[in-house]
Design brief:
Layout: H1 2-57, H2 63-78
Length: 80
Amino acid sequence: MGLVMDGVKLLVLGMVGVYVFLILMICMMYLLQKVLAPFAAKEFEAAKAAAAAAKKSSSGASDADLEAAVAAAAFHANNK
């Protein structure tokens, strides 16, 4: 019976450790979301403006051309 109780204690300890780790990870993800939100909004606006400009400048552009323009604008906005 002693080995069974040791196994149960180890099981509970392991599950509590996993639960605490998951809670800590979720809290850190929320914190990063709050810290990085202004940077993500700036990147999104730059990419949206570049896509709109690319769409206006060439009405016959393909989707691949528009994706390339958005990627270039996001790269340019990130390296300022």
